[in-house]
Design brief:
Number of strands: 14
CATH architecture of the largest domain: 3-Layer(aba) Sandwich
Number of helices: 18
Structural class: alpha/beta
Strand content: 5-15%
Bound molecules: nicotinamide-adenine-dinucleotide
CATH superfamily of the largest domain: NAD(P)-binding Rossmann-like Domain
Length: 451
């Protein structure tokens, strides 16, 4: 058992702390948000993350998790994880003020030979900045390790306990060994590298996953105009081991607390250092376009949006989380409101105030059926299982107009249409009343003309 500290108890920090306690370590958790700390002290989870509360309760009962909103005078733990937020700044760079604040407070309180482990996603070079700050604070010899986190909200515990790999970057091999030992019971390949490379692996991984989603969304748009089915195309592509089947779901596009800020920060770093990040820029453009394409579908299906009542199912940026940061569902709600629609949002876990903070004009419903009451259109905007299991008969009874826009390709088109709904989705074959498919001859003529 090793005594460690985790600074920042959000989605990454709370999960890491709970999992390290589960692995047998003694964990001091510090967060500057006292409200969050008092929830955690009771062994409750401040966020919706499946399985987290069970681990937190167990960690607290076993006396392995200790929470505080104050930094101790001296850190007993010699390994300190930084898991604070690094949001996007105005220029698109990562804002690392919270990291700086944490290091300013942590470094002078560390014992000789301590290791600072950075789990926050930080710009390349931050590890060296942290080393310099620590050195100047006079805390003596300490080492810095970059240990980027790859967990996904919604399956964070599983991802932490069964990662595809651990990435550890440092110029101190002994410090890497110390951190690797904490994960001792976890079976995963460990990639040991230098600190800048470790920091870059995180950005490159997120940018690649975002690219995969934007790629499939572009293919979905092409499928739609040529009459192919994106679900089957993605299935067929995913069977190729070189491609893999994950992150190939066409829909509203990516959002959340990581991809948008990380892709932008990487593009910003590239531009500042003289590289033109043209692929990353296209990936972001395609993503923004997905929201607009969806609005256009609703507008066309309704013949205009002014004073239309639209039910939006989902507010979180994806299923199984309450995180609404950069949520495509809420961006869609805002866009529809701007065009004069009156929007009603329902989400199984997101608190009403989170929804109205993001879209003040939105009404918030407490169930699918109350959101859909008298609606002119129902939009599936987050892929919650509850929406996949929707009672289409009951839904048909409450809406004003039987129209579903499935922006996540979640529902079975046959079932929806046989329940009497007009159904639109993204990149699946034209429905009755949908666009007329182009003739194959026309496509060949264009291709022939170009050659
Ligand atoms: N959320 C994810 O899925 C995820 C996945 C991988 C990596 N990351 C990265 O991990 C980092 C943390 O992300 P998150 O989603 O957990 O953020 P979060 O906003 O959920 O949590 C950050 C926490 O840090 C606390 N904090 C801020 N400044 C502090 C300070 N000086 N001292 C102590 N506590 C402080 C905040 O109060 C907050 O509770 C980010 O860099 C993010 O990019 C996030």
């Amino acid at each position: 058992m090793t005594r460690i500290a985790v600074i920042g108890c959000g989605y990454v920090g709370a999960v890491s702390a709970a999992c390290f306690a589960e692995l047998g370590h003694d964990v001091d958790c510090i967060d500057t948000d006292p409200a969050r700390i008092s929830v955690l002290k009771r062994g409750e989870s401040p966020i919706h993350e499946p399985g987290l509360e069970t681990l937190l309760k167990r960690g607290v009962e076993r006396g392995r998790l200790h929470f505080s909103s104050d930094y101790p005078d001296v850190f007993e733990a010699k390994i300190v994880f930084i898991a604070v937020n690094t949001p996007e700044s105005h220029e698109g760079a990562a804002d690392i003020r919270a990291v700086r604040d944490a290091i300013t407070l942590v470094a002078p309180r560390l014992k000789y030979g301590s290791v600072i482990v950075n789990k926050s996603t930080v710009p390349i070079g931050t590890g060296e900045l942290v080393s310099g700050m620590a050195r100047r604070s006079g805390c003596g010899a300490i080492s810095v390790v970059s240990n980027p986190e790859f967990l996904r909200e919604g399956s964070a515990i599983r991802d932490f306990m069964m990662p595809d790999r651990l990435v550890l970057g440092s110029d101190d091999p002994a410090a890497i060994d110390t951190v690797a030992a904490l994960y001792g019971n976890i079976e995963a390949p460990v990639l040991r590298t230098d600190i800048r490379t470790a920091e870059m692996i995180k950005y490159a991984s997120n940018a690649f996953l975002a690219t995969k989603i934007s790629f499939i969304n572009e293919i979905a748009a092409i499928c739609e105009s040529l009459g192919a089915d994106i679900s089957e195309v993605a299935r067929g592509m995913g069977m190729d081991a070189r491609i893999g089947n994950r992150f190939l779901g066409a829909g509203l596009g990516w959002g959340g607390s990581c991809f948008p800020k990380d892709v932008r920060a990487l593009a910003h770093m590239a531009a500042v250092h003289g590289t033109h990040p043209q692929l990353l820029r296209s990936v972001m453009d395609i993503n923004a376009g997905q929201r607009l394409r969806t609005v256009q579908k609703v507008r066309e299906a309704l013949g205009g949006l002014d004073r239309r009542r639209i039910a939006i199912l989902g507010a979180s940026f994806k299923a199984d989380t309450d995180d609404t940061r950069n949520s495509p569902a809420l961006e869609l709600a805002s866009l529809l409101h701007l065009e004069g629609a009156s929007v009603v949002v329902y989400d199984p876990v997101v608190l009403a105030e989170r929804i109205t903070e993001a879209v003040p004009e939105a009404a918030v419903a407490r169930s699918v059926m109350s959101a859909a009451q008298d609606a002119d259109a129902v939009i599936v905007a987050t892929e919650w299982q509850e929406f996949a299991d929707i009672d289409l008969g009951a839904l048909g009874d409450v809406v004003a107009q039987r129209l579903i826009i499935d922006a996540r390709n979640l529902l079975d088109p046959v079932a929806v249409r046989s329940a009497g709904f007009e159904y639109h989705c993204l990149g699946r074959p034209a429905s009755e009343g949908g666009p007329v498919l182009p003739s194959v001859a026309k496509a060949f003529a264009v291709a022939g003309g170009a050659s």
